[in-house]
Structures
1.
Amino acid sequence: MSYGAATHHDDHQEHPTGIMRWLTTTNHKDIGTMYLTFSLTMFMIGGAMIMAVRAELFQPGLQLMRPEFYNQLIGVHALIMIFAALMPAATGFANWMLPLQIGAPDMALPRLNNWGFWLLPPAAILLTLPFTLALFGIGDGAIATGWTFYAPLSVQGGIGVDFAIFAVHILGISSVMGSINIIVTIFNMRAPGMTMMKLPLFAWGWLITAFLLIATIPVLAGAVTMLLTDRHFGTHFFDAAGGGDPIMFQHLFWFFGHPEVYILLLPVWGFIPQILSTFARKPIYGYKAQVYSLCLIGILSVVVWAHHFFTAGMPVPALLYFMYSTMAISLPLAVLFYCWIATIWKGSMTFETPMLFAVGWIILFGIGGLTGLVLADVAADAQYHHTYFVVAHFHYTLFAGGIMGIMAGVYYWLPKMTGHMYNERLGKVHFWLTAISFNLTFIPQFFLGLAGMPRRIPDYALQFAEFNMISSIAAFALGLAQVLFVYNIITCVRGGKKATDKVWEGSNGLEWTLPSPPPYHTFNEQPVIK
Ligand code: HEM
Ligand SMILES: [Cu+2]
């Protein structure tokens, strides 16, 4: 079968220009670019929200905002960062790189792909609109329950909850469609000779992610729909007075929520080894072990959800089961860490920006993983649950493990995508500022948590003042450092030193055999993998 046969045009490069190009495009590279641009924009918006939060937390007492508004900011910050920054970034890379890496001319379902993207902006508007409406006296602002929607608070909350429910539905539809597309693409569009065991690890990471999304998003959609009917249609799913059970909401939410953290990270675990191998000039170590570990983590991730509410009250055998199953995930994860380190071991390494981010990522994500083990311990968690220890832990996994991994990917692939080299010196400055200010923001939060400071509060006891001040100052630096990132990307898109096709000395993989930037349509002739 011949892919992408030009039925309408003789010239394969022809496409609409201006706004119509972006609205109507079914081209995987254009859609990838839109996902990445959307993600970066939302990352800066979610970041600005949390800068306001850190400003409030700079000192004890209430200075800048009412507690209700504080709650709205942290919840929307989290929803934006997870659903509108991190997930779309990974999908953007999938669109750009999966077809290039597996030798396909495009994604399998291009129109679905266009729709998947264009669902995102309305969802982002739904999430943030209640802030604006409140300014005009309509409703009482955005969702104020944190990103977890826990009942009964979410049953009683204002219209922000309804907006968030619809936003989550739309985002979920987009994710499920994107996942179907990725699965079909990987199963059907691989170049001849590319067996599953020759698939780039990035594709493996995404394949498992896609299955997790299809398995768990419907559960989240069901849970928030039950919430909606509890709120407006007289049901009592989560209302104890009506025979319902608020804890059931937590089960449903985290049946989605825990796999979600792997959904955010698996694509990154896929491409980081490719970066490590490029800059260590060595093949990826333990490819098969990594594939099996990724699969095992995917499976285990759906059977551990209740570790998020050990303190809600559970029979002891259940506590033990969820503790041990959670800890079991650290075994395949340790295999991955071993492989990542072995990949660079004794390599002839150079530290261009992508490699700085990738190596820094191993260490920082490692801290995230180890502190997660602490929380998995039922006895210890009774002390740490709902403290700043948790906040620090999940920022090591989500900011360092997620966003900083994405940044490694951005620097790695940007020359391929734009055809220009970014400013290397600026990239390195960005890395060091990010790594240092990130640690200074979140290390104090570990200690605050150990000392008992609860999360989700706008005010705190005097003894926590110094560490919060350090954390806030560092957070502002972290925020400012990201301006360099945006600046570097924009200047790279607009011009700069021409990138070669191979870009990096040690790179290998099909995407590096194409010109930089790759033509609008690639692989008009199928590559054959030997
Ligand atoms: C500029 C970097 C960031 C800073 C300084 C920051 C800071 C914070 C702070 C201080 C809180 C806790 C507020 C509270 O409990 O009162 C918070 C909550 C949260 N953040 Fe971030 N954050 C950053 C980036 C991110 C990213 C990139 C993600 C995810 C991809 C993320 C996900 C979350 C989540 C899930 C919560 C929990 C919200 C809740 O309690 O429901 N954050 N953040
Ligand atoms: Cu979990």
2.
Amino acid sequence: MALPSSPSDAAAPDAERLLGLYATMQRIRVFETLADEAHKAGQVAGYIHLSIGQEAIAAAVGANLREDDVLTSTHRGHGHTIAKGADPLAMFRELCGRAGGTCGGKGGSMHIADFSVGMLGANGVVAAGLPIAVGAAHAIALKGEDRIAVCFFGDGATNRGPFLEALNWAAAFRLPVLFVCEDNGYGATTRTGSVSAGGGPGVRAESLGIPVTVVDGNDLAAVDAAAAALVRIVRGGGGPQFLHARTYRFRGHTSSDPAAYRDPAEVQAQLDTNDPIRRAAATLAGLGVTPDALERVERHERETLAAALAAALDSPWPDLRTAFTDVQDIGAPQ
Ligand SMILES: Cc1ncc(C[n+]2csc(CCOP(=O)(O)OP(=O)(O)O)c2C)c(N)n1
């Protein structure tokens, strides 16, 4: 899948570029809506974590990366992986445990990796992606390359030790890494603010000398402009940067979580006023894009992804012998 074309950080949003990013957001939302249905139908095993409501961050950051840049993600990683250019058919196969999945069907939703597009891995361990991204950035720096590493993590992850360890190392060695905190206000069922001391993720990053940019993570054009500027600094040797993107997750923590810990009025207010896709559609309408053009984009994604899911469900199961390939430490079958 082609990534949207050349990054732009011009002050005025460009309709054609934003429409490309809008298509990525729709691809993510449709992918996850179908994945949710497949999970509820018993076609996807295990837990799946949806990023519905957070699509603008993945789409806009992803569009500012080159294919050879690398990325680490969280347990909520479908959107980041799609935005980095992974093939949705291979991702559906992965979710459904089939041959031809990005990890041969052995990783599943929480462990999707696709090295062919620089996606080093989603990760079921909160904050574990941070040191991996920094390690990758250190390797890039040692080789003198101009690639960068991007690390997505949640606000909950900033309360874990690897956050400090990773930011400290990145700052000490001025590594080419962009930290992207997707602050959706919750860590599983806990309001993050109720268990976090101090002034929040940005204050912690700044205390280590890493510059922080705060952005409305549900404003597609704003995230695009911020990401373009930060990627340029990181790629140009300016050292690590931190993007604090405020957002909201519309669904429960997992597909099986009814989110009874949240006031329904809070969720409804967010749905009514802060859906990043509806906000992007309104921006595009203001730039002269017709409702028909927006509908065509959405229909294309719905049709393409429905066909991809059907093809994934029609794919064979992995050969039993592949259970022993790509597995560390246990050696080959005797
Ligand atoms: C080390 C570790 N501790 C606890 C968990 C259980 N857990 C899974 S997701 C999650 C919340 C993470 O919140 P955040 O980092 O804000 O990401 P979000 O789910 O909001 O995207 C927790 C506590 C885990 N997977 N790993």
3.
Amino acid sequence: MAVAGEWFLPQWRSWDTSYREDRKVLSPTTNRPRSLVDISFHYCPGCGHGIIHRLVAEVIDELGIQGQTIGVASVGCSVHTLSYFDLDMQQAAHGRAPAVATGIKRVLPKQIVFTYQGDGDLGAIGIGEMFHATARGEKITVIYVNNAVYGMTGGQMAPTTLIGQATSTTPDGRLPDRDGFPIKVAELVSMIDGSAFVARTSVHNPVNVARTKKAIRMAFQAQMNRLGLGLVEVLSPCPTNWHLSPSEAMKWIENVMIKSFPLGIMKSLER
Ligand code: SF4
């Protein structure tokens, strides 16, 4: 699957466990994770943020670290993340979540610190923060949600927008000669020595939701074992700005987006 990835990234491996085995990591959906506040999400119908919030909360509950975990929210549709997690949360300026997380972790090294960022936040204004936090080997976890557009501000082209993808600022589709190429954050972070765990996952169907949860757990464990920075890039639907129904958005990830952003574990120092 990952032709270029295999050449550049010798540790790359696609998921190799069975559907049945993957499903075992999912919790019963009737129980609200303790690490989530009991309020409704404001996200659009079919948005992936709610799924990813739940997975992060389930992992924190299962690792027993709710009382020692601090989250850093970013700017974008997920700016209200800090309202949804029943954790100590801090808001960062646009793109600066890894720097804020660095400060928290260095002052409180026994706490578990994670950032929750979108592609407009992390992949554009914040990409320098991301690379330098990785190069410093910060013991933090980064949950990076890639939906290939700026969601909150109206669906403009993001650094991750696919070639040919129509957005509000590229209505005729992203053209390489004019608009450049999508940035593959996970591949780049995996090539920096300070990263300990890097994966790209998706939430477009149950088996990939389960794999996303596994990856989030492994990224937190890399921090708990003080191995280095962990990043999970999650492909996530934005039906509103893709102008698709929720089910069409899931199919678009499967049929189109994964071809540009292949899934798999790119680096795991624990293996
Ligand atoms: S605009 Fe997109 S990313 Fe933002 S809440 Fe709506 S569906 Fe989710």
